[in-house]
Amino acid sequence: MFSIAIVDDEKEEVEKLSELIRRYFAENDGGGGYSISTFYDGINFVKNYSQAYDIIFLDIDMKHLNGLKTAKVIRRTDDRTAIIFVTKMARYAINGYEVNALDFIVKPVDYFSFSLKMKKAINYASLNRDKKIFLRNGDIDVVLNASDILYIEVLNHYLIYHTTKGDFKIWGALHDIAEKLGETGFALCNRCYLVNLSYVTSVVKNIVTVGEHELTISRYKRKEFLEKLAAFLGER
User: Fold this and answer.
1) Residue 35, helix vs strand vs coil
2) Which in 75, 86, 200, 227 has the greatest CB count within 10 A?
């Protein structure tokens, strides 16, 4: 299920985009697998904003709070959601890089152009969806977002999850969790560390910096790790 928001102060434009989205999913997903939420003001949209949307279509030229300012508010708490600007003037979309916008669409929107942008957004959203990891720490069940994990360390048959919310030590095998995380942006830098590539800030010789931690890259994993890192950065 993809959650999509349309933010535009013109009702006719909202209805047009809604119809294009319905057509896209009818032709590509059997007519299901999505929800559409509509907003007619940037202020109301960001007022109680939560990271509930996979894709946001955002009109640039709105009264009160324009699309660029709306996007800046969104990015204070959400750097993952795909933002696509919708505008009558393409030159206004050039500032999209300031808020890491995925793309832009020029009005009037034709279906062929829209379908290409929509496919790109769906692929991006699929890659950036947050997986949940369920851990049992004694008698306490812990739920972690994959995006909160910096890296996972194996130590004497235990896994230590180093996260933005602290460390969690759980009995387990690194191979199993690496398989579970799949293609979500994690890679082994050696047989002891599974790294969240989102937190990699540098690689110098055989050392990778993950947040504030320096981890060793093994000679046997270096090529594979660098290839996965390059592919990950290319996708982002």
Assistant:
1) strand
2) 86
Could you tell me the pTM of the whole model? 0.61
Give the tokens for residue 33.
């697998």
Return the structure tokens found at 178.
Answer: 């690496």
What are the tokens at 87?
Answer: 């505008």
The neighbouring-strand residues paired with 200 are: 210
Per-residue burial over 105-127, b if 16 or more Cβ lie within 10 Å, else e, is bebebeeeebeebbeebbebbee
Q: Which fold has domain 132-235?
A: OB fold (Dihydrolipoamide Acetyltransferase, E2P) (2.40.50)
- Token pair of 68, please? 């660029």
Helix or strand (DSSP H, E) at 106: strand 103-106
DSSP strand pairing (2-7 vs 34-39): parallel
Write down the architecture of domain 2-128 according to CATH.
3-Layer(aba) Sandwich (3.40)
- Residue-wise pLDDT for 97-114, tens only, equals 778 888 899 889 999 999
Which pair of tokens denotes residue 234? Answer: 């290319």
Residue positions counted in the chain: 236
For the beta sheet containing 2-7, the strands, ordered from the edge strand earlier in sequence to the opposite edge, are 34-39, 2-7, 55-59, 82-87, 103-106
Domain locations in the chain as residue ranges: 2-128, 132-235
